[in-house]
Amino acid sequence: MKCSQCKNEAVAFLKYNGSHLCDKHFIKFFQKRVNLEFRAELRITRPVRIGVALSGGKDSSVALHETKRIFGMRRDVSIVAVTIDEGIKSYRPETMKAAESLTAKLGIEHRILRIEDAFGVTMDDVSQGDRLTPCSYCGVFRRKLINGAGIEEGLDYMVTGLNLDDTAQSMMMNLVRGDIARIGRMGPHSISKDGLVPRLQPLRKIPEKEVMLYAILQGIDFSHSTCPYADRAIRNEFRESIDRWEERSPGTKHSIVNSVDKIKALIPLESDIRMGKCKICGSPSPGDICQSCAFEKELGTWT
Ligand code: SF4
Ligand SMILES: [Zn+2]
Ligand SMILES: [Zn+2]
């Protein structure tokens, strides 16, 4: 099949807009969307320090690569990659290697934070026994660490590699739970509220498969390793359903994100993010005790 824009061989067929693209035009289309999304999410009017949450997988590696591509030459922007070590023996060492190799290649500062150092427990420990899925604890601990790093490092923004698939899944999960307040708190954020570092999500409108293809075409180092606990997550059930809808009706994922973005814009500001402070650690929290402290208490890891 030929590219819809030139005579070269196509490497991608984008069902949702009917176009076949060669490598050159695919890369151009990909970068155009990232540029537009960054422009929509971020207006730089003073020197800023941008963190990139880097797991070592394809999405965050592409997010780091794109942040460097767009802002790497600017004197008023500094970039630091932040990797969380969750304590998962069959997954983290390989992904850490990929993260270290990419940051070295791009010449980006790299901070590594360990859940075990901060919370006294690894996700391998948590997976033993009759508890919630490790992802429930991991997500909460990781968010707290990333936010703490954001504050310590003086970060103005934190870029994450969430792609279109992740974003549509999170939105549907929040809708199904009726959690409108959480929809109001979803990124991207334009300003910092209650001590939370605003999140930027430059890949949020780009399908996962395209992020993978871009990483391969650009020769970006990333790890293919997947977390052994990933298949326990309820998210997978949403992933399967949404993938089926997309297959039957191309463009569904974009429609979910565009629709929920419109709903989010209608959520009144006062109910948007009404955060107090955790009575134990002082972190921003919608309740008296933040979820991280509640988990630490449950796991008995308080020191
Ligand atoms: S799949 Fe779950 S346990 Fe594994 S790294 Fe992701 S959130 Fe953590
Ligand atoms: Zn072409
Ligand atoms: Zn707390």
Cα radius of gyration in angstroms: 19 Å
Bound molecules: iron/sulfur cluster, zinc ion
Order of helices and strands: EEHEHEHEHHHEHHEHHHHEEH
CATH class: Alpha Beta
Beta-strand residue percentage? 5-15%
| CATH architectural category | 3-Layer(aba) Sandwich
Q: How many strand segments?
A: 9
* Total of helices: 13
Provide the low-confidence segments as ranges: none
Which sheet architecture does the biggest sheet show? 5 strands, parallel
| Mean pLDDT reading | 92
Number of domains: 1
Q: Any idea what the CATH superfamily is called?
A: HUPs
What is the structural class? alpha/beta
Strand order of the largest sheet: 5-4-3-6-7
Spatial shape = globular
The CATH topology is Rossmann fold
Helix content: 40-55%
**N- to C-terminal distance:** 62 Å
Oligomeric state? single chain
Descriptive report:
- It is a single chain.
- The protein has 303 residues and is of the alpha/beta class.
- It has one domain (46-299): HUPs (Rossmann fold, 3-Layer(aba) Sandwich), CATH 3.40.50.620.
- 49% of the residues lie in helices and 12% in strands.
- The protein has 13 helices and 9 strands.
- It is globular and about 65 Å long.
- The protein binds iron/sulfur cluster and zinc ion (ZN) (2 copies).
- One zinc ion binds at residues 3, 5-6, 8, 22, 24-25.
